Amino acid sequence: MCLGIPGRVLATYGSAGLRMARVDFGGVRREACLAYTPEAGVGDYVVVHVGFAITTVDETEAARTLAVLRAMADAVAGELGEPLPAGEPAGEAGP
User: Which InterPro entries does the UniProt record give (predicted)?
Assistant: First the structure.
């Protein structure tokens, strides 16, 4: 399964012959290649998978997708329990 995250294009630029963008994912900013979305520009929303913008979406769809992803994270967080202390491998009991 592939998971793409929507983000807003903050800036575009060229790098090594590729069109690139600085993308904001709700406060986290990363680079993404725009080779597959040549129509994307500053202010547009793109769905990014492994560093490549794979499609453009409107602001409403981006917000809806982010809300679903946040709800999934919240639902899973309650089921995972407390993290193991550092250095304690999973599945091994102490003395």
Answer: Hydgase_assmbl_chp_CS, Hydrogenase_HupF/HypC
